[in-house]
Amino acid sequence: MQNETLLKRSSGMGGIFNLKLKKEEEFLKKYGTLTAFLLLILLNVFITPNFADISTFWNLVIQSVNVMLIALGMTVVIATGGIDISVGSVMAVSSIVLAKLISYNIFVAIIAAILVSVLLGSFNGFVVSYFGIQPIIVTLSMMITLRGVAQVINSGRILNFNVPEFSEIAYYRFFGEVPIQLFISVVFIFLILFLMKKMTFGRYVEATGDNKRAAQIAGVNTFKIIMLVYILSAVMAGIAGILATARLSASDMNNMGKLLELDAIAAVAIGGTALSGGKAKVFNTAIGVLIMQLITTMINMNDVMYSYSLLIKSAIIVGAVYIQKRSSK
After folding, report:
1. Which of 100, 184, 203, 241 gives 95 a disulfide partner, CB atoms 3.0 to 4.6 angstroms apart?
2. pLDDT (tens digit per residue) in 296-313
3. Residue 320 to residue 284: CA distance in whole angstroms
4. Highest-confidence segment of 23-27, 34-38, 314-318
5. How far apart are alpha carbons 1 and 273 in whole angstroms?
6. What is the pTM of this model?
7. Comparing C-alpha atoms, which of 98, 112, 142 is closest to residue 124?
């Protein structure tokens, strides 16, 4: 009888422990990204000189805007169960197209850069959807090809231009203080949130990512959805290319957007969007981008080797994917 009582108590304690563990996992799933961001801010307030200065925050926003745009587009692609690692090269192509035309007409140059991005995204989406080739293979091929195309257009040389009325856009500050990059980031965050939360498109994207075959049976045109998400991803990369080109007053097709796709994918993973597809956590992706940039800022401002930031980012990504795996069980 005594042994039975002890067994029951042990089982009860085990149940309580499992329940507590489950609650902790649910908390991490819902608020882990935001909690990590707040803890990083708190840590930097104590260890990083001048971190609390408002200029540090503005610099964080300015430095993260390109990854922010790419990551928002990447979130939608990953929600379908796909991936797009060609975005850095799309950025480079849009940049060189813009730089080639900017001296003739600013408006035409911007439209041309965006249209090129639409065409490149359409190609990715068509090949992935129509031929059923793995997205990582398609976009890897495009990443290599487009980087080469961008370099060939200007023989691998940096293309400088002098169009102050265009370049000044990247340095504009509202009320003389707030950088335009903050406005751009906020606008696109809410735009993608609206698209995914309030539009039928968002439900179709998540249905495609959850179970493509079931979505097709339910009447979802998955071919069209996949086409659209890759076009969206490329357009976001194209806009990032336009902003980066304006800030540099040049197109450096050799380095423009290089490896930004990896930071974007990492931000999506940190934000909790499952890499296998499903629910798109747009706001968390935005926080993930800031976390990635915050780590880089922390390393730079404390005169630590940049390599350490890569180690920290890697650890965070592995942790984020592990939490995803635990939550899906």
Report:
1. 241
2. 888 888 888 877 777 877
3. 12
4. 34-38
5. 50
6. 0.89
7. 142
Token pair for 66: 């390109």
Q: Quick count: other Cβ atoms within 10 Å of Cβ 185?
A: 21
**Which amino acid appears at position 55 of this protein?**
S
The count of C-alpha atoms lying within 13 angstroms of the C-alpha of 198, restricted to the half-sphere facing its C-beta, is: 6
What size, in residues, is the chain?
A: 329
DSSP assignment of 204-271 equals HHHHHHH-HHHHHHTT--HHHHHHHHHHHHHHHHHHHHHHHHHHHTEE-TTTTTTTHHHHHHHHHHHH
The string of pLDDT tens digits covering residues 106-133 is 999 999 999 999 999 999 999 999 999 9
Round to whole Å and give the CA distance between 301 and 314.
20
Each residue's pLDDT tens digit, 34-79: 888 888 889 888 888 888 888 888 999 999 999 999 999 999 999 9
What 3-state DSSP class applies to 178?
A: strand
3-class DSSP assignment, residue 286: helix
Q: 213 with 100: CB under 8 angstroms? A: no
